[in-house]
Amino acid sequence: TPLHQRDLFFDDIRRCLTSAGFDEMLGHGLAHSQQASLVSGETPQLKILNPVSADLDIMRNSLTLSALPVISHNISHRQLDLRLFEIGKAYFPPTQEGEWLEDDRLLLVVTGHTDIGWRDKPRLLDFFDIKGALTSLFQHVGWQEFNLPASEDGRLEPGLSFEIQIGENNIGVI
């Protein structure tokens, strides 16, 4: 079976992030609408007509919705030092033209401390660890120039959140 360019690109991203010390999460596309409202605010939700359970009544509109339970589970089992990523889809209701939206997304998560080395003391993972991983990833795929202007997303901490811009396009948020 021939591989699509998109699949090769995602495999390349996986190799780059795992070589930087990240582990991949595999989440499913279902989420709870109340949690989605808390996390994603007014982002449109794609309701499921016949949900498997009351807790999984929409298609996720953010990868964060499947990452939070993974992070919570790891922390509750004393796995505090996490570097995780997920490549997955976010789903949205159809546009006015009737086109369904399934966007490919990338999520990076860090918690806890850096790895213990023979000469370095562990320190808390922070914004700069995420920025460094993104810089390495962007250079690897050939996106040399990117900017991080302050984010005005009201759901995020002012002064500690940034848009990720390549050219004039906002492609994400830290």
What does this structure look like?
The protein is of the alpha+beta class. The protein starts with a helix and ends with a strand. The chain is globular. The protein is built from 4 helices and 8 strands, in the order αββαββαββαββ. The longest helix is centred in the N-terminal third of the chain and has 15 residues, at 5-19. A 3-stranded mixed β-sheet has the order 1-5-6. Helices cover 29% and strands 22% of the residues. A hairpin with an 8-residue loop joins strand 5 and strand 6. The mean pLDDT is 89.
Which descriptors would you attach to this protein?
single chain; 174 residues; alpha+beta; three-stranded mixed beta sheet; three-stranded antiparallel beta sheet; 4 helices; 8 strands; 29% helix
